[in-house]
Amino acid sequence: ILKRQFLLEQTAISLEKQEDRAEAEAKILVVDDESINIQVLVNQLALNNYYVATASNGEEALNLIEKVNLDLVILDVMMPGMSGYEVCKKIREKYSLVELPVLMLTANSQLSKVCMGFECGANDYIIKPFEKQELLARIKTLVMMKNAIKQSEIDPLTGISNRRHMTELAEVIFNQHREENKAFSIVMMDIDNFKKINDTYGHVAGDHVLIELVSRCKEVLRSTDIFARYGGEEFSLILPNTSLENAVKVAEKIRVNINKEPMKIAENKEIYFTISSGVAQITKNTESVEEVYNMADKALYKAKEGGKNKVEV
Ligand code: GH3
Ligand code: MG
Ligand code: MG
Ligand code: MG
């Protein structure tokens, strides 16, 4: 009987692994000042197919968070130097509860301490010594939540940000740049005569053009640029720290990169496709990010009126 139970358990685990691959690929940072605690956690997480990074103090943790795109932080409270509470507060200055979940781990079961953890921005809290299954269940839930949010920000066809995510990011960047008096530009792009491509080669071929456009844009963009599908065959670029002049250069580089070679659209058929772009930047009088979008949109209209395959301001 014991043997069968063991087998069943193994089968259940391996099935679960396959079904939950998305969760299992999550990247988790374990922060604890005691190396034995880190070891125990790392072993458990690795066994469950999570990617694990470790830090033994707050500063190290905050540094790593800046560099690695994490899905969860497991944070010890009692640490020399910065406490887990302080680290969590620092994390929350930059990342919301859904952007980077924090699971606090501590030996202190005092109610006030638990509540303090949540006040500092923890998503969840577990008291040492913990049950392995409970910890894993909590981790799984937090990672699932993070994945669900991530999915809701992405355009399924092209894999880049969707309009909703872009609008949120644009708002944050706009406010930051206005406060710091820094340049900030937006580019609106629209495929030329896309209807004709769809009508001639079909919707599926049209979809491939959208995917190809994204790939050709990415060849030109920097990692700090935000590239999103605004809707249909319209795309938008948010360029932090970028003047109008430089934004025009970027848009022009993209325009040329898209048009420089044909793409295979059907068996034995290659086509060239083009885009038009409108560029705008924030000025001293700009009050909202929508104003910048409207200006970029007007410029895009001008590019279309002027014959397409053009960048206008
Ligand atoms: P213009 O040069 O003035 O931009 O003309 P256009 O034909 O590109 O523009 P219009 O706005 O008239 O047509 C856009 C077309 O894009 C209409 C719509 O069917 C198509 N479209 C929107 N979303 C998708 C999509 O996800 N896939 C495909 N294949 N087509 C799409
Ligand atoms: Mg500790
Ligand atoms: Mg359009
Ligand atoms: Mg179009």
UniProtKB/TrEMBL annotation:
Residues 27-143 form the Response regulatory domain. Residues 182-313 form the GGDEF domain. The modification 4-aspartylphosphate is found at residue 76. It comes from the Bacteria. In the N-terminal section; belongs to the phytochrome family. May play the central regulatory role in sporulation. It may be an element of the effector pathway responsible for the activation of sporulation genes in response to nutritional stress. Spo0A may act in concert with spo0H (a sigma factor) to control the expression of some genes that are critical to the sporulation process. This is Circadian input-output histidine kinase CikA. The chain holds residues 672 to 984 of 986 of the full protein.
